[in-house]
């Protein structure tokens, strides 16, 4: 298999990731509305820490090429960007 094949596979995964990230953001919008109704802050440090720990543990268990720290950094960016749509 050549580089074009693997790039096509990456392109397909990117399309899936975009769809999944938008689904996640849509859920965050719904959560943001509930938080606003209940007077809760958008940022929940304990929830975000829980997610980062879970993601790092999952990455470690999967033993893939991305380290648990790398995966946690990726999710930190995802949560930061998603938090913007909760407002």
UniProtKB/TrEMBL annotation:
<dbReference type="GO" id="GO:0046417">
    <property type="term" value="P:chorismate metabolic process"/>
</dbReference>
<keyword id="KW-0175">Coiled coil</keyword>
<dbReference type="GO" id="GO:0004106">
    <property type="term" value="F:chorismate mutase activity"/>
</dbReference>
<dbReference type="Pfam" id="PF01817">
    <property type="entry name" value="CM_2"/>
</dbReference>
<dbReference type="InterPro" id="IPR036979">
    <property type="entry name" value="CM_dom_sf"/>
</dbReference>
<keyword id="KW-0413">Isomerase</keyword>
<dbReference type="InterPro" id="IPR051331">
    <property type="entry name" value="Chorismate_mutase-related"/>
</dbReference>
<protein>
    <recommendedName>
        <fullName>chorismate mutase</fullName>
        <ecNumber>5.4.99.5</ecNumber>
    </recommendedName>
</protein>
<dbReference type="InterPro" id="IPR036263">
    <property type="entry name" value="Chorismate_II_sf"/>
</dbReference>
<feature type="coiled-coil region">
    <location>
        <begin position="3"/>
        <end position="30"/>
    </location>
</feature>
<dbReference type="InterPro" id="IPR002701">
    <property type="entry name" value="CM_II_prokaryot"/>
</dbReference>
<dbReference type="GO" id="GO:0009697">
    <property type="term" value="P:salicylic acid biosynthetic process"/>
</dbReference>
<feature type="domain" description="Chorismate mutase">
    <location>
        <begin position="1"/>
        <end position="87"/>
    </location>
</feature>
């Amino acid at each position: 298999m050549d580089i074009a094949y693997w790039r096509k596979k990456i392109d397909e995964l990117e399309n899936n990731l975009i769809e999944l990230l938008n689904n996640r953001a849509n859920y965050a919008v719904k959560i943001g509305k509930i938080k606003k109704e209940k007077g809760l802050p958008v940022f929940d440090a304990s929830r975000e820490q829980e997610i980062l720990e879970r993601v790092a543990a999952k990455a470690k268990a999967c033993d893939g090429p991305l380290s648990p720290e790398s995966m946690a950094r990726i999710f930190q960016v995802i949560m930061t960007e998603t938090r913007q749509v909760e407002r």
